[in-house]
Amino acid sequence: MAVPTIIRPPTCSISLSCTPNCCSVPKKRNCLVSCCTPSESAPAPSEVRRRSEVSFCIGTHLIPHPNKVDKGGEDAFFVSSYNGGVIAVADGVSGWAEQNVDPSLFSRELMAHASDFVGDEEVNYDPQILMRKAHAATSSRGSATVIVAMLERNGTLKIANVGDCGLRVIRKGQIIFSTSAQEHYFDCPYQLSSEVVGQTYLDATVISVQLMEGDIIVMGSDGLFDNIFNSEILSTVSKYSDVAETAKALASLAHNHSMDSSFDSPYSSEARTRGYDVPWWKKIAGIKLTGGKLDDITVIVGQDYTSKFSEYKIAGDLSMVLCTFRIVGENYQKPERL
């Protein structure tokens, strides 16, 4: 059976929900895909499906770079219901714009192909193989960092990551797992590319994490993690019980930090440790490099929950997302400051 995925236009705002019972490589940046339209994959209104024992409740939110609002930014992501569920983010590398290449095309096509191959027999629910097949099928010129996470029905979350998109697993108010960025040098991450010089699926960091009921997963592009500290992620997550509100709050906080030249962000802090700072005469005056990083900001928040197999009906309404995930909230926001 074809895997239902959700396609969203790059400049739309959409709210979807269902309720089951329950290095010549270019420097960094910067599809909004989530991937087939609900109408293409919708079963009959009265069709009954069985739900997995372990699944996610998912909220997503994307805020594009202030200068890229018209085209919806250059990040891409998708959410799929296959098996226990699949989530992925790709961040198009903005350096391609210097060669008159639209950086969003590669990331969008990569995610579209990934969504197509989710149920492929050869993939066999392996995020690294899914990455390989999606990359091989992508014909657009460009490159992107990418992270893929696949939840098995037994609660195992399998992750493959190339570059500096990231994922955090939060349990009982503490971060128990974090991905690490892969970089050639500062601000030049590993990336899947249309060119021979890029990385491949073999360069991906691959790891499995055993989830427990109530665990919260925060996945995002570097626009999130460059502008918000882990402590802020924890404090924000603790304030909300709804994953859509959590995703929106995290994206909004990261966006506000990215616009604040006085904020000592994770990005500016890392830059200073790598030797990038203000001139010496400013240092004498006690001035240091600060500020957030303007970027596309994609956030996917998932909460694990477990239940025994139970039946639920899927309505034939086009507003329903036909998947194990419960998708709630907007996936696109035009920054209020614009």
Condensed summary:
With 338 residues, this protein is an alpha+beta fold.
Describe this structure in words.
It is built from 8 helices and 16 strands. The protein has one domain: PPM-type phosphatase domain (Phosphatase 2c, domain 1, 4-Layer Sandwich), CATH 3.60.40. Helices cover 22% and strands 26% of the residues. Mean pLDDT is 79; it is low at 1-52 and 308-338. α2 (103-117) packs across α3. It is α+β, with helices and mostly antiparallel strands and 338 residues long. The chain has helices at residues 38-41, 103-117, 127-137, 222-225, 230-239, 243-258, 266-273, 280-284; strands at 48-50, 54-63, 75-80, 86-92, 143-151, 156-162, 166-171, 174-178, 183-185, 188-189, 192-193, 205-210, 216-220, 297-306, 311-313, 326-328. The strands form 4 sheets. The chain has a 6-stranded mixed beta sheet with strand order 8-7-13-14-2-16. 50% of the residues are buried.
**Could you name the CATH topology?**
Phosphatase 2c, domain 1
Average pLDDT figure: 79
* Through-space gap between termini: 43 Å
| Rg, nearest Å | 19 Å
Strand content: 25-35%
Q: Tell me which CATH architecture applies here.
A: 4-Layer Sandwich
Integer count of domains: 1
Total of DSSP H or I helical runs spanning 4+ residues: 8
Percent of residues in helices comes to 10-25%
